[in-house]
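step=predict obj=Solute carrier family 25 member 48 n=300
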Amino acid sequence: SKEPQMSEVLSGSATGAVQTGLLHTRLQAGQGYGNTLNCILTVYRNESVVGFFKGMSFPLASIAVYSSVTFGVFSNTQRFISQQRYGDSNHAPALSDLIVASMVAGVVSVGIGGPVDLIKIRLQMQTQPFIKANINLKHMGIGFPAYRGPIHCVSSILRQEGLAGMYRGASAMLLRDVPGYCLYFIPYTVLCGWITPEGCMSPSPSSVWIAGGIAGAISWGTATPMDVVKSRLQADGVYLNKYKGIIDCISQSYHSEGLKVFVRGITVNAVRGFPMSAAMFLGYELSRKALRGDQAETNP
């Protein structure tokens, strides 16, 4: 029997994982961090262990929805294309099919992930010191919190910047996620097919873990330059408004810090990308198998 499209969404919701987002955000958009180790020590010294989880409550509360939609959109778009092109939704997809499905997933992910990322970064960056003096900041000491929590952050952004403010940096995120998801789902699919022995109906958990981890490291590593721009645009506005847009952010960042700024956090991104994505894909595949098994029992 045909696997229902809803199972793709439900299995995706089981893949939520905690991301070590604070380190790469601080490295990319913060000031005064020489390298990853220095960032870790500085955060711990100034904010203790709690500092590493700052701004994570809202992403954790919404990651199940984000994951389910992203994986569901990719899988169902792929199935729809296969149905239209080959007359069989379970037909093996061509490379062009995977590219289109990945791009669609990337576009949709920005609609959901943009505001979530913005709030996370604003909460993480609000304790950062600002080098440039500003008359409106003289009453604030270093580390003065602009937001009391996720709800206050959302209300403040909506009040000061309107609904468009919730999607600050969305263009950069789009430029990150569309190619990023192509380099996420396509390497995973190809590697799974390459690792899995002929005759096997589905990849083994070890194959899924390896393929998912490698795909995550590739995707996050290559996405780092635009991730830097996105993080800086989203962090901009906590106290100051420094950048006018993507081009201005790239220009200012390059002139003040050189090309090396665009690979800030690449080590953290690649290292976290492997276990995070391995667990994500493994959870997705295992939950999808479980759902398919339940369907086979209820729909013989």
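step=describe
The CA atoms of residues 38 and 271 lie 17 Å apart.
step=end
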